[in-house]
Design a protein that fits this description.
59% of the residues lie in helices and 15% in strands. The chain has 258 residues and is an alpha+beta fold.
Length: 258
């Protein structure tokens, strides 16, 4: 059991790192959108300065920053990792420098100073977050381990409780697909990124006694400290769960809590 618990802790770290990568990938979209907006403003500045006969250096610098922001967004989308947070910090610092350098020789407006200080504060926050992530994931899951986990997630989502006695289909909110492997239950969201690695005491499934002859009955799910709203569970899912639960009974403390 101690080995199973240690394995679940390792798998939870993989889950946490996958969630980090998913968050970095989602934030990359924001970088790309912001970069496109910046490129549009750089174009407007270019047109304005060019029409006045001046050298649109500000537009060139602004465009360069926008391209940098675009590259960061694409990197975070294609290669999501903790380093995406670090790159965000450097981009914010570059914007801070641009905002203040743009007003050399003159006093910048108060809103520029405030905005620059805000971006500086945000950049420091990114650097601190990256340092924390480095400590949390000193030993990151290998690409092979992440690929194996992704394959497992796909397998769980495709599993059918009628054909696979280790599979459960729990149409709660979110909709969970479950694989029962040894003493470990892998909960995977039917959509999106949610994944939960649970032990025998971490969840419980209850079903009404009355059989309505429909192949489904009302059920309740406890997952950790959360209780899902009532839903319908199939006889196949219940049979698989009951067999697994018989081999992995709840501890007395968990049974009392449930």
């Amino acid at each position: 059991m101690a080995d199973d618990f240690a394995m679940r802790m390792q798998l939870q770290r993989v889950v946490a790192y996958r969630e980090l990568r998913a968050g970095v990938r989602r934030s990359g979209r924001g970088n790309v959108f912001f970069a496109l907006v910046m490129l549009f403003f750089a174009y407007l500045v270019w047109e304005q300065r060019a029409a006045a006969g001046g050298v649109p250096l500000a537009a060139v610098l602004y465009g360069a920053l926008a391209v940098g922001e675009l590259c960061v967004g694409l990197f975070k989308w294609l290669f999501p990792s903790a380093e995406g947070v670090l790159l965000d910090g450097f981009v914010l610092l570059a914007f801070v420098g641009y905002n203040f350098l743009a007003f050399l020789g003159g006093r910048p407006p108060a809103y520029v100073i405030l905005f620059g200080l805000f971006m500086l504060w945000a950049a420091v926050g990114r650097f601190k977050a990256y340092a924390q992530l480095r400590r949390m994931f000193a030993h990151r899951p290998s690409p092979e381990h992440l690929a194996w986990f992704d394959d497992l997630v796909a397998e769980i989502r495709a599993a059918d409780p009628q054909a696979d006695e280790l599979a459960l289909d729990l149409p709660t909110k979110p909709h969970w697909k479950v694989k029962l492997l040894g003493t470990t239950a892998f909960f995977v969201g039917a959509k999106g990124d949610p994944v939960w690695v649970a032990g025998p005491d971490d969840f419980e499934l209850l079903r009404e006694r009355a059989d309505h002859g429909t192949g489904r009955r009302k059920a309740l799910l406890r997952l950790g400290a959360d209780h899902a709203a009532e839903f319908q569970v199939t006889d196949a899912t219940w049979a698989n769960y009951a067999k697994w639960r018989a081999a992995n009974p709840l501890s007395s403390a968990a049974a009392h809590t449930g």
